Amino acid sequence: MSRWAAVLAGGSGTRFWPLSTAARPKQLLTLSGSEPLLVAAVRRLGGLVPPERVLILTSTALCDRVRTLLPEVPPEHVLAEPRAASTAPALTWATWLAYQQDPDASLLSLHADWHVGDPEAFRKTGARALDVAERHDVLVTVGIVPTRPEVGYGYIQPGEPLEDDARQVERFVEKPDLAGARRLIERGALWNSGLFAWRCDRFLVETREVAREIAAALPHLERGDVVEFFVKVTPIAVDVSHFERSRRVAVLPGRFAWDDVGTWAALARVRETDDAGNVLVGNALQHESRDCVVWAEDNTVVVDGVDNLVVVHANGVTLVTTRDRAMHLKELLATLPPSLRNLTS
Predict the structure, then answer these.
(1) Which of 46, 173, 181, 216 could join 149 in a cystine, given CB atoms 3.0 to 4.6 angstroms apart?
(2) How far is residue 298's CA from residue 36's CA, in Å, rounded to a whole number?
(3) Nearest alpha-carbon partner for 92 in 12, 210, 13, 193
(4) Degrees, nearest 5: CA angle 38-39-40
(5) Could you tell me which residues come within 8 angstroms of residue 315 by beta carbon, excluding any fewer than 6 positions away?
(6) Which distant-in-sequence residues (6+ apart) come within 8 Å of 77 by Cβ?
(7) pLDDT per position as a tens digit, 17-58
(8) What pairs with residue 258 in β-bridges?
(9) Cα 258 to Cα 116: distance, rounded to the nearest angstrom
């Protein structure tokens, strides 16, 4: 039995505009450290899944760049999705490829754009998730033990015990309000991280039985016609297509520092701050300011006497917003001229 990993790396990362562009989206940026998020994600798998069994799902436009960043991953394992169709079709493709190599294979699915504060704990949890998936023939989701009532995440309510800390899933809750998040945490709910594990044969059976948006297109994949498979599927997230519908789902708690680095404000959680709580990257300076995120890619940016701001200068554009409003950057972009929305780098 072999173990594989699928790394989802196809997003556009618009919440990190103007630094993130179509040619250099979030997963290729050094947002939480000295290396791109995608590179950190693959190297974090070391000792758990070897590079030759890592599959990276990305866009056609990014394939060459990804192969250059990760020469240890076989070039043919950097997979260009014919169209963006959310996570379920991409992971069905990856699972099918791993299954073709080894009918007894299992697969760990993760996103390329996370920050993980304890790689060793991540690997132990990933190995445990694969163990449970293999032993109990279930789809496993890892739920992060919450550190705050976060309204930007989905939640998983664990149910009846399966073994040790593995439990069946009682229900999924998508992005509650603040009061709802607090109630869920009080009841032992976990953050839905998007870290999954399954036996490949089980995932394909569940695809046929519960994922109607994908099942009818599977024959195209089995014939090797990936393009037609993506034409025929209906875009859908694997959380919905498989995990919310299947009766064979388990959840494990993840007790490691994890963040999906979803907005500019998240950098205060994943990067070093000064004594006043400021994140200063590049040619960024502050005077009598607190709790600001300042990213200066090619010019000097100085903030003076301000609190809770996000100031970003990149690709010839300067963004000034608040940390609270940073989560609404997509709404701002929709109002801007195309020349600003579609920056190049």
Answers:
(1) 181
(2) 18
(3) 210
(4) 90
(5) 18, 19, 21, 297, 343, 344, 345
(6) 52, 54, 55, 56
(7) 999 988 899 999 999 988 999 999 999 999 999 999 999 999
(8) 116
(9) 5
